[in-house]
Amino acid sequence: MATLGPTCHEAPPVVAEGYAPKGEYTTFNGLKTYQVGSTSSRIAVIDVYDVFGYASQTIQGADVLAHAAGCLVLMPDFFDGGFDLKFETYPQEERLKAFTEFASEGGSGYAPKCIAAINSAAGAIKTQFPSVEKIGAFGMCYGGKVVILASNQAGTAINASGQAHPARLAADDAKALKIPHLIMASKDEPAEDVTAFDKVEKPVGSETHTYPTMHHGWMGARAKLNESENAKEFSRGYEQLAKWMLHVLA
Question: Which of 45, 101, 222, 237 gets the most CB atoms within 10 Å of its CB?
């Protein structure tokens, strides 16, 4: 597999059940991290999971990205494990309370803490992996929100960033962008928010796309890979992400 140049490899077939990860868990910049792909690549991507931790679908997505882009993918545990998927079945009041605690000061998802951790990881990549020249960052759902906030910080080492089924999409975040940014929205994000974000003049290379048949979470822990349409769009999403990263980080 090539690790240099703009060639994107076709995504491998999606595995609906019993997926065997291609990477390994290690410690990077002080955090438990899922690492996959070539350590001699010139491109590294920080992959921020949605709030549901190291779900099998999320890990498979990281593996697909590493294969398709021929890059190194690092998925640090910025959210300290996040939530179990059973969280989705809790009463709405319980979910709201739990997420409020998660996102508040002292919580594992507190945005300023996560933004600092993402930029610290980005700054550490070239020291640990000297072949890396360009750094991308990608997040899903709330992970996408902290990615765009991190990539808008002055002095960031991130060269391009993107989000899939973004949470709390805001035009003000688009206005602050200094690097190319990719949006891959689902049918469930408010269309007016996606449109408002897209209308903002952004750095060259930025793109906004909507997957009109997909639900919020189709590329992460909520992916229904036993359904053919979701499996197809899961592959298409990661291939699109890989091609875009290769283009803007060339």
Answer: 45
